[in-house]
Design brief:
This protein is α/β, with parallel strands linked by helices. It contains 17 helices and 12 strands. It folds into 3 domains: 3-184, Rossmann fold (3-Layer(aba) Sandwich); 187-274, Helicase, Ruva Protein, domain 3 (Orthogonal Bundle); 288-429, no CATH class. The strands form 4 sheets. A 5-stranded parallel sheet has the order 2-3-6-1-7, with helices on one face. The chain has a 3-stranded mixed sheet with strand order 11-10-12. A two-stranded antiparallel ribbon has the order 4-5. It binds adenosine-5'-triphosphate and magnesium ion.
């Protein structure tokens, strides 16, 4: 493909960068677009996997028909088949009407199956059938339907490993992977890092009418050395944060370091939290178990720090407002407590339907969609010191990460380096449903 076409695509879709590996991805996308071949896009978190399926659709003969992007990781396991393939009215509790399903409505169009590695095995079998024969059956029906859908899929998990572990069907993998496109991580893209920094700095300065931040030469060098575990998404968030929070417009390495951009970023913390250590294309030697152990270690240390901090604040509060009795719970009799069977050190005791703030940290109520409402201050309940179990730490971490991301489950799952499906399951398991 000639360079001009690639540049036009970049301009049209807001893709920034000149790295050869990125150009190659765009080139393959344009070349494969007019065919009906399945495409599987690989790449770490935040590398920009979501734009290429759109490029493929828009440059195909299907461009005037429907395009749907479906995140397979976020569809609950119980309804995923019905979402994808449709269902017949009354086929299960809650099936109040017939549902067409994406494979039906996208007929003659394109389906982008994001996080395809998260599909349950039963759904994988249905998907294989529709890919091979164009046939599918709606949930609760026996009638075979036909559809003509082009599939583009994306994943950031190591599919070979998933196959070895029996989590992904090998036949489906080969069927999806007819044309593989591997998007390079940001750390390999050299000067593109600087270009992206400038673009994001400009975007946010326009939006908020502020002077754009710029890099000193040393800061530029630091950005090139940094490993970018969260790739472009992380870079954009960093630029947004610095642009708004930093008083300086000239960004030095010292300022970057205060945002945890360091030249030894391959340390354990970064690896685990941002999924840097996740196996992509079989490159990493670390096993899932190692990752899990590291995560638990990390959670334990975070848990301890949080506990120490709360203790400190608690002591200060006690000093300012001495408790009248040994215990100072503020709980209205008629209001149930959150999950009373599980008690955590300094767990807040709250009214069920009120958002609340403990020591400046805001937690959403159980029936509030993590949106902003009136915030109610409550005291904390001192509980006997007991080391938190991994489960407790995970629960706490989920609450705090959800809060930090204003309830956005996708971002929360990504930050915790778990799939959205796992997050949904844990929210249910820990009684955090809203
Ligand atoms: N080359 C690029 N130029 C400009 N913006 C980009 C580029 N690549 C990615 N982005 C931006 O980075 C962010 C992350 O991209 P995207 O959501 O496509 O990542 P992803 O690979 O799907 O990540 P994940 O695996 O976590 O879902 C988006 O806001 C996207 O617009
Ligand atoms: Mg994505």
């Amino acid at each position: 493909m000639d360079d001009k076409t690639i540049q036009q695509v970049k301009q049209r879709y807001g893709i920034v960068g000149n790295y050869e590996g990125l150009n190659r991805c765009i080139d393959i996308a344009i070349q494969v677009a007019p065919t009906d071949l399945s495409v599987l896009i690989y790449g770490e978190n935040g590398v920009g996997k979501e734009v290429l399926p759109r490029v493929i659709h828009d440059n195909s003969t299907r461009k005037h028909n429907k395009y749907f992007a479906i995140n397979c990781g976020s569809l609950p396991e119980g309804t995923i088949d019905s979402e994808l393939f449709g269902h017949k009215k009354g086929s299960f509790t809650g099936a109040l009407d017939d549902r067409e399903g994406y494979f039906g409505v996208a007929n003659k169009g394109t389906l982008f199956l994001d996080e395809v590695g998260e599909l349950p095995l039963a759904t994988q079998a249905r998907l294989l059938r529709v890919l091979e024969t164009g046939e599918y059956i709606r949930v609760g029906e026996s009638e075979v339907r036909k559809t003509d859908v082009r599939i583009v899929a994306a994943t950031n998990v190591n599919m070979q490993k998933a196959i070895r572990e029996g989590r992904f069907r090998e036949d489906l993998y080969y069927r999806l992977n007819t044309i593989p496109i591997s998007i390079p991580p940001l750390r390999e893209r050299g000067r593109d890092i600087e270009l992206l920094f400038r673009k994001f700095a400009y975007d946010i300065s326009e939006k908020y009418h502020i002077e754009p931040v710029r890099l000193t030469e040393d800061a530029r060098v630091l950005l090139l050395k940094y490993k970018w575990p969260g790739n472009i998404r992380q870079l954009r968030n960093l630029v947004d944060q610095i642009s708004i929070i930093s008083k300086e417009r000239e960004i030095t390495p010292e300022i970057l370091k205060s945002y945890e951009v360091t030249d030894d970023s391959m340390g354990e913390t970064g690896l685990v939290l941002h999924g840097q250590n996740r196996e992509v294309h079989g490159q990493s030697q670390h096993s899932y178990e190692q990752e899990r152990d590291m995560l638990f270690q990390l959670l334990s240390s975070i848990g301890k720090e949080v506990k120490d901090l709360k203790e400190l604040v608690h002591n200060n509060m006690e000093h300012l407002h001495p408790a009248p009795q040994e215990n100072y719970r503020i709980v209205e009799e008629d209001m149930p407590e959150i999950d009373a069977s599980v008690q955590y050190a300094h767990q807040p005791v709250i009214r069920q339907s009120q958002p609340y703030v403990v020591n400046g940290q805001r937690y959403p109520s159980q029936n509030e969609n993590y949106a902003n409402h009136n915030i109610q201050e409550v005291d904390i309940e001192p509980i006997d010191e007991a080391p938190m179990s991994n489960r407790e730490l995970m629960r706490k971490n989920i609450i705090e990460t959800l809060k930090r991301n204003n309830g956005n489950r996708k971002k929360t799952a990504s930050e915790l380096d778990i799939s959205e499906r796992t997050l949904y399951r844990k929210i249910k398991e820990y009684g955090l449903e809203i």
